[in-house]
Design a protein that fits this description.
The protein is an all-alpha fold and about 150 residues long. It has helices spanning about 5-25, 30-60, 65-85, 95-120, 125-149.
């Protein structure tokens, strides 16, 4: 049965593929611009919807507030990378270097969520509540895609 944690992991797996796709591009090509923009929109919409569903739940639970705040702060850091890269010339020699830093940070963030954040968040969460959070995430993400596009 799919729950919020399964859905978030599915997004993470797609984001890993998208990161690799962007990393395999070069110069100021349509391929790089399109792949980067798809990644930016999907990651941003995912993070926003995740904050409005799972992280809202975690911030309401005192024992999980620290982890929730940490992840939300990492979302902001990743957002800053996307903004910087969007403003930089795609064929600038520093673009790919900075993108690789973003790739490393985002991969670290996803791994940390999956291994360190999700398990304690899942503890004490009823199956029904996990389903409610999935419903909220699935409702919010398309709205966030529209907002960040």
């Amino acid at each position: 049965m799919t729950d919020i944690f399964t859905r978030l992991k599915e997004d993470h797996d797609r984001h890993r593929e998208m990161l690799d796709r962007v990393a395999d591009t070069s110069g100021d090509s349509k391929e790089r611009r399109d792949a980067f923009e798809k990644l930016r929109v999907d990651v941003s919409a995912h993070a926003n919807a995740e904050e409005q569903s799972l992280y809202a739940e975690m911030l309401a639970r005192p024992e999980l507030q620290g982890e929730g705040r940490h992840s939300v702060a990492e979302h902001k850091e990743i957002d800053d990378y996307f903004e910087e890269l969007s403003e930089k010339a795609f064929d600038d020699t520093g673009w790919l270097t900075r993108f690789k830093e973003l790739k490393h940070r985002l991969e670290h963030h996803m791994e940390e969520e999956e291994n360190d954040i999700f398990p304690p968040a899942k503890d004490g969460l009823s199956e029904e509540r996990a389903q409610d959070l999935l419903t909220e995430f699935d409702k919010r993400k398309p709205a966030e895609v529209t907002k960040v596009s």
